[in-house]
Design brief:
It contains twelve helices and eleven strands. The chain is an alpha/beta fold and 322 residues long. About 5% of the residues have low confidence. Helix 4 packs across helix 12. The strands form three sheets. A six-stranded mixed beta sheet has the order 2-7-6-5-3-4, sandwiched between helices. Strands 8-9-10 form a three-stranded parallel beta sheet, sandwiched between helices. It has three domains: 40 residues; 98 residues, Response regulator (Rossmann fold); 129 residues, Rossmann fold (3-Layer(aba) Sandwich). It comes from Bifidobacterium scardovii. InterPro entries: HTH_LacI, Lambda_DNA-bd_dom_sf, Peripla_BP/Lac1_sug-bd_dom, Peripla_BP_I. GO terms for molecular function: DNA-binding transcription factor activity; transcription cis-regulatory region binding. Keywords: DNA-binding, Transcription, Transcription regulation.
Length: 322
């Protein structure tokens, strides 16, 4: 059973920037000041008009590129294209398709359409592709990735001042606009669900400890346990995102002799492993031990019994980013 509680907890960050994440447009005067020439000289160099020394023209254009200068919207080359670019590091994971469906759903209600860039987790390729497509007059850019770990912010030199939204994988830049799932809230809600079912001896099984999604969900769970006057029945275990880890971690919990009536796992594959191990030990799920997962993947519905799970609301994140 999927819970929609996390849909109420998507977090949006856009401190100090415009709503759409647009960086301030570099002006001709700023380029002129950096090049120590007059604005009229800059205009001649950028528009390839008037008499100006070739060396000066090259110098001005180099400085303009470095600053991320874009010609005004009124320029024929910069008229609205109606295209939003979506750049992703991931085309194979389970999260990208529902995210893109959300983007398309939102843009389908407007005059815009999307074009997709696959950057292969290669920062240099990402910058090159984005800079090239930005120079052709797209109207905005959405950046996404395979996980919720924070990433570096793109410079205006690369984006040419385009409005940029970082989705699912947030930017470290405080002035950037990022739309991310509320993983901390999800952890809290998972413990709340277990507690409301009368469970008080709750164990936590994390995934890879260096992943933000894993630690955020666990931190949310710990906060809710503390709020309710509870503590995890054993030390928190961190491992992988795979089903085998759920089996291993649950076996350790039971072999330690602790009484457990609830387990929160940070994803559905780990939850499935936990349920498999519990059943081999003769324990009923959810009667003896209730298990809650996360991600709302198809495996949650292919497991018997069906896993109670939380969704990342990826279509909604995609729609909000667009």
């Amino acid at each position: 059973m999927a819970s929609d509680a996390i849909m109420q907890s998507m977090e949006q960050h856009h401190d100090g920037a415009e709503r759409a994440g647009r960086t301030p447009r570099v002006t001709v005067r700023q380029v002129a000041a950096a090049a120590h020439v007059s604005p009229s000289t800059v205009s001649k160099a950028l528009n390839d008009t008037g008499r100006i020394a070739p060396r000066t023209r090259r110098m001005i254009r180099m400085i303009a590129r470095r600053l991320g200068y874009r010609p005004p919207e009124s320029s024929p080359a910069q008229r609205r294209s109606g295209i939003i670019a979506v750049a992703t590091t991931d085309l194979k994971g389970p999260f990208i398709v529902p995210f893109l469906e959300g983007v398309e759903r939102r843009l389908g209600t407007t005059a815009y359409c999307a074009t997709l860039l696959y950057t292969h987790e290669n920062p240099e390729l990402e910058e090159r592709q984005i800079n090239r497509i930005a120079s052709h007059g797209i109207d905005g850019l959405i950046l996404t990735g395979s996980n919720t770990d924070a990433r570096s912010s793109l410079s205006a030199r690369v984006t040419l001042g385009l409005p940029v939204v970082y989705a699912y994988a947030p930017s470290r830049g405080k002035a950037d606009c990022s739309v991310v799932p509320g993983n901390v809230r999800a952890g809290r809600d998972a413990i709340g669900r277990l507690a409301e079912c009368g469970r008080t001896s709750i164990a936590l099984i994390g995934a890879e400890e260096h992943w933000t999604a894993s630690t955020d969900r666990i931190n949310g769970a710990l906060h809710e346990l503390k709020t309710r006057g509870l503590t995890p029945v054993t030390p928190i275990q961190f491992g992988s995102w795979e089903q085998d880890w759920g089996i291993i971690a649950t076996a350790r919990l039971l072999d330690a002799g602790n009484h457990i009536d609830g387990i929160y796992c940070v994803n559905d594959l780990v939850s499935r492993g936990a349920i498999e191990l519990l059943r081999t030990r003769g324990l009923r799920v959810p009667e003896d031990v209730a298990v809650v997962g996360h991600d709302n993947r198809s495996v949650a519905y292919a497991t018997h019994p069906t896993i109670a799970t939380f969704t990342n609301a990826l279509p909604d994140i995609g729609a909000l980013a667009a």
